[in-house]
Amino acid sequence: MTLGIIPLSDPSLIENEKKALRAAMSAQRLAVSAAERNAAADGLRVAFSAYARGMSDAALVAGYMPIRSEANILPLMADLAERRIATALPVVIAKGMALEFRRWRAGEPLEDGLYGTHHPVGMGVWPTVLLIPLLAFDPAGFRLGYGGGFYDRTLDAYRAGGMSVVAIGVAYACQQVPHVPRLPHDQPLDAILTERGLLWSNGAA
What we know:
Blueprint lengths: L10 H20 L3 H20 L6 E3 L11 H9 L3 E6 L8 E4 L7 E2 L5 E2 L9 E5 L2 E2 L5 E2 L5 H11 L5 E5 L20 E4 L2 E4 L5
Parallel strand pairs: 1-2, 1-6, 6-9, 9-10
Antiparallel strand pairs: 2-3, 4-5, 7-8, 10-11
Helix pairs in contact: 2-3
EC number: 6.3.3.2
Enzyme class: ligase
Protein name: 5-formyltetrahydrofolate cyclo-ligase
């Protein structure tokens, strides 16, 4: 069976395809060496810096605290703080709900959250840019996550409500695949950030 070409009329088969791709891409991401991870963390910071220079004073970038071998964006977040760009982290409220976001700067304390996450305390905020971890991505801007649907629900709520947000997936370049299997509820990203640069979903670098 070829990944990514199952008809949308059979969602259960697409979910099985996603499950198989998750296993394969989880193993591939785990295989990235420590040296490659460190180099990629700096590459992500540098690649995002040009985009950050064009941000307005009202910008608020929500990142994530890396878990499960995710690409490390902490140097990127620290760089944003030095540029006086407001930053935040996601909060998992409960299964089946959209994410909340709370302000956070590098070095500030966190508390334990659901599913092995860590998040800030305080009031919720509305980010203008989301940096989103993933297992796989394709040139069309679709991502494969862990299957919880948190970011899909969050993006759907933002977009349905007419709220402006730039959704950027964060990954190692080796996580790209020709096609991510998708269902109607899967939300596309505006761009993908890897250690090689920022790639917009229309293919522009």
